[in-house]
Amino acid sequence: MATKAAVPQVAPRSAMEPLVQESTPSMIAGRVREAIASGLIPPGSQLGEANLARELGVSRGPLREGLQRLTAEGLLISIRNRGLFVIEMTPERVQDMYLARQAVERAAAERIHQGDPVAAGASLATVIDVMASARDQHAESAADVSFHELLVSLAASPRLSRMHGILITETRMCINALSDLYVQGDRVRVEEHRAIAQSFSDRDPALTDRLLVAHMSDAVHRLTGGRVEQG
Amino acid sequence: MATKAAVPQVAPRSAMEPLVQESTPSMIAGRVREAIASGLIPPGSQLGEANLARELGVSRGPLREGLQRLTAEGLLISIRNRGLFVIEMTPERVQDMYLARQAVERAAAERIHQGDPVAAGASLATVIDVMASARDQHAESAADVSFHELLVSLAASPRLSRMHGILITETRMCINALSDLYVQGDRVRVEEHRAIAQSFSDRDPALTDRLLVAHMSDAVHRLTGGRVEQG
DNA sequence: GCGCGTGCGATTGTCGACAATACTATTAGA
DNA sequence: TCTAATAGTATTGTCGACAATCGCACGCGC
Fold it and tell me: Which of A167, B37, B74, B133 has the greatest number of beta carbons closer than 10 A?
């Protein structure tokens, strides 16, 4: 009978797709990473294993595995028989972090220019619109982060994306911890990003590079209050 | 008796200093990482937890924690309920790896030029002498790796060094796996490195940058056999 | 002969308990 | 009163065992 053929044998694609359950340590790492990035767990604080395990509803085994991952990312430091601590953001660390971000994002930008910079510029412009319409500083910072994440992802390089993700986590933590210093009174930040996006649309690699360097330099000076001179 | 006073109460400084024992998962990660980099554990192979734990004389708990660290580095991939596998080096991966290495090393080189490039050039020249006097290909590759590790460490950037260390591990693994393709008949490789070191001594940042890009491009073409065109 | 369901073996995932270490508060002595 | 040794407590480090899941081979039915 033809009636049976009318009954779908499988559920719609959208309902079946996301059944790829990631490992528990990975989920734990994601949760704790987010808690650190958002400032819920402040820098310098110790992570008690028993507390966290109870809070997340898992045993200490998987928890420790997830935390080891964050240690490998440099987000936590391990002191033997003492425990794990969230790193603190000194001016030197901020400077180094932005040096690394600059390395990654400049490489990503160069690669984008080798591909389809016009399409990339259009994508980035969308994020900038979100940034421009942000009502509070929190939303603006979120859009800022999104811009740079999209920038690197457009380079389609797994390694650059992975390295950048780690750095972005540190950046977010830093912004939350030093939010007083990150105040950007007017809309200068939006215009800086718009210029970067435009340089992609204009197919001007050298300009993109210069703008990125200046943008990073600005951020460092803003966050460190100019207390660190280059070594 | 005065003889007792002659006995030193404390050991010499050099013997007491390095008592900072690193955590067990960290040591495990180092061992396994080295085994993978040296080719002792070939790409694509599965890491049986029970075997490894017995081999290293530890329990599965710390072992799994150490392996999570390597997973975070991207050296292992985890498939739930299946186990951990060493990544395989496809041409795309090699290309991406060198893209990331290029990003890190170019940034390190730029930073060196902002500091003391002449001293850096001298340090690098020392490594090149070792490379030039290498008898077999293995020693030459080791010196090659040392050159690039020193290059990045001279930038004195913790994050660049950490990211580069991960990439160098992959590079070593790749060279061991594809050693047939990495044959460098004559002494071209030595001269390439010598030119890079010289560009530091000559305080020529632009030349360093160009040489590094060319050097990386050469390596990619050598390892992939020119099978991958840029995307 | 071919496809499918089922049982088996092996490996991973998780948990609780024990041991070791470091920090803290208390108390005795100078 | 201050120093120093000590007992106590809390936390981390490690281990062994149990449960869950997956791949594979055997056997049955069509």
Answer: A167
Residue B228's nearest CA partner among B87, B44, B99, B37 is B99
pLDDT tens across A120-138, in order?
A: 999 999 999 999 998 888 8
Same domain, B218 and B151: yes
Nearest CA in chain A to B107: A103
Q: A40 vs A32, A75, A86, CA distance in Å? A: 9, 14, 11
What is the reported pLDDT for B114? Answer: 97
Residue nearest to nucleotide C15 (CA to C1'): A59
Cβ contact (<8 Å) for A26 and B100? no
The answer to whether residue A183 scores a pLDDT higher than 70 is no
Q: Are A114 and A208 found together in one domain?
A: yes
| Closest CB from B78, B107, B163 relative to A102 | B107
A207-221 pLDDT, tens digit each:
999 999 999 999 999
Element of type H or E holding A46: strand A46-47
- Look up the domain containing B57 and give its range: 25-86
Give this complex's ipTM. 0.88
Q: Does A81 touch chain B (CB under 8 A)?
A: no
Tell me, yes or no, whether B3 lies in a domain.
no
Asked if A107 lies within 8 A of B103 by C-beta distance, the reply is yes
Which residue among A22, A114, A160 places its CB closest to the CB of B100? A160
Alpha-carbon span B181 to B128, nearest angstrom: 22
Instruction: Determine contact, residues A160/A152, Cβ cutoff 8 Å.
Output: yes
